[in-house]
Amino acid sequence: MTEKHTHEHIHEHTHGHTHTHTKEVLDRLARASGHLSKVRSMVENGEDCTEVLIQLAAVKSALNNTGKVILKDHIGHCLVDAVEENDMQAIEELNKAIDRFMK
Asked: Which of 47, 56, 60, 89 could form a disulfide with 42 if both were Cys (CB 3.0 to 4.6 A apart)?
């Protein structure tokens, strides 16, 4: 029996979201996607495991660095707005997101 996991992300913020690094995030995600495609190709072609792991490390690094850009953007804009508006829910959601991101 397979277990189906669903995740609903419903929240209402009273502040708007200003994303100043959207192009940078999209560029980084494109690079990560390219690295991941390379990993898939390497596995399909039976390439050396060491090289696959090196390429996989590049994927992880690209995603982590993308997350850092998003986090900085969020702290610099959305969180500042939440603090100014005393929006404790937004602050708690950020704490939860950081916990998940750091795992």
From this structure: 47
